Amino acid sequence: MPAGQKLFGDTEKLRGSGSAAGSRADSDAKTRRIRQEVTRVALTTGLAVHDERVRRRMTLAQLAERSGVAVTTIHDVESGRVGSLETYARLADALRLRAEFQLVDPRRRELSGRPVDPVHAAMGEAEAAHLRARGFNVGMDEPFQHY
Fold first, then answer.
1. Which residue has the higher pLDDT, 79 or 12?
2. DSSP element (H, E) containing 27
3. Rounded to an integer, what distance in angstroms lies between the CA atom of residue 138 and that of residue 147?
4. In this structure, is residue 100 part of a structural domain?
5. Same domain? 80 vs 145
């Protein structure tokens, strides 16, 4: 291959993207959103570890001994810094908790304790399908079948 020739061609053309500045801005926004989500998960998990440790009246040193995780790492996790999945799993095991990671559709609401009405549920689904067929974006509120 001659010097300076690209092996795969112009990746921007392959992606079908517009200007390089536009795709860079999209990439920066996506990176910010991902960092915010990682921070949110780390803060939530760290708070849960801290609350459970305090509830069990354990010191950082005691949790470190039980989990095999360094005291400084536990402190970092409890402060909301991002830990590894193994660290979270070790801490959960030492606290006799089950570590879970869920991917949740933010458009769906959690089901309430109310019973589901199959007749109205079917009516709501039929109406939503009717609206979707006409180009409307419809989301269903499960407990009440509202859209």
1. 79
2. helix 20-55
3. 6
4. no
5. no
